[in-house]
Amino acid sequence: MLRRWAPLARLLAAAPAAADDLRASVRAWRQANEAQVVRELAAFLALPNLASDTAGIRRNAEHASAMLARRGITTRLLETPGSPPAVYGELNAPGARRTVMVYAHYDGQPVDPSAWATPPWTPTLRAGTLEDKAAAVDLATLSRPIGGEWRLYGRSASDDKAPIVVAMAALDALRHAKRPLSVNLKFFLEGEEEAGSAHLQALLEAHRALLKADLWLLCDGPVHQTRRPQVYFGVRGVMGVEVTLYGPVRALHSGHYGNWAPNPAVEMAHLVASLRDPEGRILVAGFGDDVRPIAPAERDALRSVPPVEDELKGELALGRTEGEGATLAELILRPALNVRGLESGKVGSAAANAVPVEAHASIDFRLVPDQTPAGVREKLEAHLRGLGYHVVHETPDAATRRAHPRLVKLEWGPGYKAARTPLDQPAGLALVRVLEQGAGPIVKLPTLGGSVPMHLFGDVTGAPVIGLPIVNHDNSQHAANENVRIQNLWDGIEAFAAVFVGLGSAWPPP
Amino acid sequence: MLRRWAPLARLLAAAPAAADDLRASVRAWRQANEAQVVRELAAFLALPNLASDTAGIRRNAEHASAMLARRGITTRLLETPGSPPAVYGELNAPGARRTVMVYAHYDGQPVDPSAWATPPWTPTLRAGTLEDKAAAVDLATLSRPIGGEWRLYGRSASDDKAPIVVAMAALDALRHAKRPLSVNLKFFLEGEEEAGSAHLQALLEAHRALLKADLWLLCDGPVHQTRRPQVYFGVRGVMGVEVTLYGPVRALHSGHYGNWAPNPAVEMAHLVASLRDPEGRILVAGFGDDVRPIAPAERDALRSVPPVEDELKGELALGRTEGEGATLAELILRPALNVRGLESGKVGSAAANAVPVEAHASIDFRLVPDQTPAGVREKLEAHLRGLGYHVVHETPDAATRRAHPRLVKLEWGPGYKAARTPLDQPAGLALVRVLEQGAGPIVKLPTLGGSVPMHLFGDVTGAPVIGLPIVNHDNSQHAANENVRIQNLWDGIEAFAAVFVGLGSAWPPP
To answer: So what's the ipTM on this one?
Structure first.
């Protein structure tokens, strides 16, 4: 492959100096406008953004649309029946031969406000981390520079509003430096990614022409744990299921009826234990049948991923890891079964000596190519039938409960499959080159552990899809006290600016 | 044994007619005073009675003491350092040669108010059951008769305030009928039974002379599921433990870290599954070593227990029972391990795709003779060590978590052992005879499934201890919407009256 790029390599020999200039001017703009950038993000984070909150989601879409419009981007809201609006934007570069689509999502994961130090939609800047008990800083009256290790706390601070604001800041910096874009830009900001992207395919299909691009850049997920920039060429798919088992219709005194009335919490323990072992191995028969073997280029790229395991174990106070010593980057190339919740009866001071009436487990699966949600569902249900369970998908009535010694209710989320773009594809090679001119060697991940519906972008638009994440890994994404590290915003602005200015010339002609 | 009682049997040949007279006059009094009895119970149920609520517990003790005093019972509150007060009472019968102690407890189990149809300490009379959507009836203005199938809802309606009020009503009925007591009565009403009776032994020992009696009657637990009266000669012991497992110190995105960061919910499933199987068999090595074999008289008594399993399975919508077909009465002669709660992460609409930080299981054990709480603790901890767990009893710091690949925190409740009085003991034979004269054949249970600290009464006072329960089995004891069935109050008044009037003469001379 290298021979083919040799003329291009010569062409780019002078590029590092140009990249340095660009970086210096973007940085100078940022240093002069730090509070403004963080305030723009905080204003966006102040809008509650659960996909289930229709009115709130629309306020977010209109807010994002206005942010784009302020940069001269032509915007419109794209909708299909029942969908939250997606924000679409277009910014053409005179003479550019390529179009790059920037994807992010503006909705956020559900919250448990009682677990947050400050309310999830009250963005709070701290001069460090909560773990270090850093004090909150009043953003409205802030006059000093903002430290790179400061954090901004709030739902979606990282996942996934930060990249939207960072892209806008990059455009502001380029306009100030009078540096032209080398590619046409399009934007597609989704409003239900955290709820499973149920309408994404319909949206993409309904607006196929509008959404045509030569590369989709997915600005979701974190940079590497070493804080080095990374790009990812794939993502895992995702699938969720709520599992319910039934005990007696009313809670029973555990002395009078315990070890006679079936205990659903005990049954759930056995059910969950039958699904996977403590090392993460999935025990469902045939679960790995559809797993595509790792390509040689992917295995090569794994070797470029810096080790992070020991540091993470310290940071997370872990006495062990799953996977029998495999690295994190290796493990996320495999499918996963995560128990995200267990609930039955009561524990601690609320515990009563009773046989619980129900037991619940909430499970999310991570899929790899070429697994499908339908295949996962079929295999799990076959596994449970093999254990003697009668599987239902609606709440069973008393007659159904009487009729089946083992009865399980499964409520499946929609889910979607994984995706992986080949690592030796021209757009990807150009993207890596431009980023490495700016920031030195970056991490090239064959797949990210997390899930975005990357497969749809490729399947519907036919374009290559590559992930360009911005935010820190230690952002408590999906949990309480989600945050973004300020230096990641600054680095992100430089990365986006480098891509917007440099990608067009680094990319071989069509 | 029968030969020995032959003279007594002749003496009692005329007794059934006398028993009928007594029952008729007690019933007539009750029919004239139904609302008054239920109102007295409701007033008692209106007092919050968690053992942890010191002020509330004292209000209950004073209220109970006043109820006793209104019947001419000499009362005092017994206390030891740190204990809630126990209510003690004494009512002597001129010429009586025997003294019977009536035990009940006035504290109640913890509540989850959100699960109650009406607040736990707002007693609510309904003209039937909640399940049948029976309407609430205003007790204050009630003028019609109270149906036997009506229910009074409230925490401790059955467990265990009803027997206290029923005993008072029996005394009122006897006074009205001018029927003298045949035994001296004493009362001991405990205030922390549901919290593990931590001070009971100290109380009994401190007041050993005062608490001397020839028979302790434990008025806790329910009558048989067929609604037939029953007495029980033993109880299971009890022991509780809170189990905590640890994942990462902060919740982690399940895509980026799932199947690398250890999932404590999965580990908990494996831990719980290692403790017992879905049939109720305890898998902890040596757990059954201390179990005393069933005596022949106990096995005989089992045959007199009517089958209830099929009806209960229908009522509870059960598709199976644990114990591989053994009867309920057989199963409660065995030790039991009940998982009363599981909690990790979140389920349902609150579920987020994250690796949980902790997993909790709450377990209660039921012990049989001659198991001890210390033995249970030792065996469980040895079992967990055998699985590779490092066992701690306090919340571990980060260094401890880092140092141990498998780490479990166990927080043990105090617990107490089981007890069983021989079935062929004179006081028991007399009690059964008196009750059967009034109500026909009763159920004689070698042991109740539930737990009261019966062993302490026997160990400290040396008296035989027999259970005489009053309340219905379907009372949602220990759970939401606890209730008492009104007919059980009426039957209880007649049973207590029969014992108070008849036991002295049915009992062979000392």
So the answer is: 0.78
